[in-house]
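Reopening this one. Same input as before:
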Amino acid sequence: MGSVEVTILGQKYTIKGDAPEEHIRKLADFINEKIRLVYEHAPHTTPVKALILAAIDIADELYRLREEEEEIAKKIEAKATLLSRLLD
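Same output, byte for byte:
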């Protein structure tokens, strides 16, 4: 298990884990970008509020992608069932 030092919202953090260093850095950059967007829309937001709003945005993105993935899986299953019936 390695460790990587990243900077999020101007604070340095040491992240320990099995993920490759580049992956951890990309995650930190992603979080920083979400926070930057929050500050762009609400420049006087406190850091804690900015982090919470960024977390909500990330959770929303994840939730929507999971729903989309579920919908695609259902469509694939329906088409596979149809093709199976056609082959019988």
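So the earlier flakiness isn't reproducible anymore. For the record, The beta strands are 2-8, 11-17.
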